[in-house]
């Protein structure tokens, strides 16, 4: 089904997208029950990709001691995976629409496993960076394919909403379990073991996916636009790289920020212009003319913009202000993950009871309330407040993202499922990068002035302490005595002030998202073309499937 419409919006009359019928031995013979087995395969696939995004974090100290990378090399070891994945999502999402989504997914499995082996056995930083980049390529092949196959296998919108809830809940589990699993493996083996776990899992899932998953494509008219795919990849890479450097503390007018941002923006402008002129574009820009689609994409960006940078700051607060150990920090954040999982599982029921507009607005409002409630945090631990705030925040955020993803995917034509899924994932990554840059800047603006001009602290030491709370503690330890303690106290208080300022900014962005969500459809509707398309897809993937 193609999803929601609004009053006064004409129903598109495009032809029903073509999808290749499943063939014997390649995922055919699907019955209704097998859809949920397929969903399990897709969820495990996404779980592995989400897991790999965070599993390396706790291995950094051990890895640094072994490979001894420089500061820039260490930065690229961390960034190579998300940068490669984010920049290539549209390329592989649209390629799957042309050559087959299952085919791209299986190739992604193979590359992910091979890159994991190279990363685990890397003996130099350069090899590890290359392997991490290849992992990102494999992840970019897997992520949009899972969502576009889900879109094809679940033509009924009610079933699809439940499937998306399970899919997104597993992603939350992967991101949360990553550091815990990574810490367990590093303590008992060595840092490379965090990559080796991918190989047996991929070896198991590859033949299962090859047998169960149906192959499907979109319309195959015209050649695949290789030049356009390259422009999109390089453009997104440039924008995200510039945003990441800005979030890392670089000055906005420095070349490391300006050059990639400018080049990326120009390439994306040329890409959009090219797609509008092409007879058979990679991405149908007409999708953005649909209020439900464009608004959903904007809501995803705003949600991540408001919250990802805040999450990083919250981790610093728990460890550096409250003095919690890394494991205790992880346990404090678990309620957020569990609440997100609960929202994902309940998402289908909430969507059909409230409708997309009310669901996303409520999610934004609930999250903004949680963020404002957390401004009551101070320099002393208030565990019940933190737990209640994190639970509300996790439930509200997942409710927002669920409603936005479901509306976006349902509004996109089935033939453009891969491209639509890639746009959604790219919006997620772009919002996350922008959030780190924006909220990091707000945090620094609130924090840095509070540690300057402390009596007895040299100007150079005060400037160093203004970079972060962790560096302020190091400077205070070097100075020692009453002056060092005064710097430590001032830095802690200034950090809390900056955190409050960041929370208020985040809440304002979330309320802006709630206003933007008013453009979403009020109810879940099924236009005539969607019903026809759903019936045809039922013939491909439902009880009537034949070899």
Automatic annotation (TrEMBL):
<feature type="transmembrane region" description="Helical">
    <location>
        <begin position="221"/>
        <end position="241"/>
    </location>
</feature>
<feature type="transmembrane region" description="Helical">
    <location>
        <begin position="72"/>
        <end position="92"/>
    </location>
</feature>
<feature type="transmembrane region" description="Helical">
    <location>
        <begin position="190"/>
        <end position="209"/>
    </location>
</feature>
<keyword id="KW-0472">Membrane</keyword>
<feature type="transmembrane region" description="Helical">
    <location>
        <begin position="162"/>
        <end position="184"/>
    </location>
</feature>
<protein>
    <submittedName>
        <fullName>MFS transporter</fullName>
    </submittedName>
</protein>
<keyword id="KW-1003">Cell membrane</keyword>
<feature type="transmembrane region" description="Helical">
    <location>
        <begin position="129"/>
        <end position="150"/>
    </location>
</feature>
<feature type="region of interest" description="Disordered">
    <location>
        <begin position="1"/>
        <end position="27"/>
    </location>
</feature>
<feature type="transmembrane region" description="Helical">
    <location>
        <begin position="38"/>
        <end position="60"/>
    </location>
</feature>
<feature type="compositionally biased region" description="Low complexity">
    <location>
        <begin position="1"/>
        <end position="15"/>
    </location>
</feature>
<feature type="transmembrane region" description="Helical">
    <location>
        <begin position="498"/>
        <end position="518"/>
    </location>
</feature>
<feature type="domain" description="Major facilitator superfamily (MFS) profile">
    <location>
        <begin position="38"/>
        <end position="525"/>
    </location>
</feature>
<dbReference type="InterPro" id="IPR036259">
    <property type="entry name" value="MFS_trans_sf"/>
</dbReference>
<keyword id="KW-1133">Transmembrane helix</keyword>
<keyword id="KW-0813">Transport</keyword>
<feature type="transmembrane region" description="Helical">
    <location>
        <begin position="253"/>
        <end position="272"/>
    </location>
</feature>
<keyword id="KW-0812">Transmembrane</keyword>
<feature type="transmembrane region" description="Helical">
    <location>
        <begin position="358"/>
        <end position="378"/>
    </location>
</feature>
<dbReference type="InterPro" id="IPR020846">
    <property type="entry name" value="MFS_dom"/>
</dbReference>
<feature type="transmembrane region" description="Helical">
    <location>
        <begin position="293"/>
        <end position="318"/>
    </location>
</feature>
<feature type="transmembrane region" description="Helical">
    <location>
        <begin position="384"/>
        <end position="405"/>
    </location>
</feature>
<feature type="transmembrane region" description="Helical">
    <location>
        <begin position="330"/>
        <end position="351"/>
    </location>
</feature>
<keyword id="KW-0046">Antibiotic resistance</keyword>
<feature type="transmembrane region" description="Helical">
    <location>
        <begin position="104"/>
        <end position="123"/>
    </location>
</feature>
<dbReference type="InterPro" id="IPR011701">
    <property type="entry name" value="MFS"/>
</dbReference>
<feature type="region of interest" description="Disordered">
    <location>
        <begin position="527"/>
        <end position="547"/>
    </location>
</feature>
<dbReference type="Pfam" id="PF07690">
    <property type="entry name" value="MFS_1"/>
</dbReference>
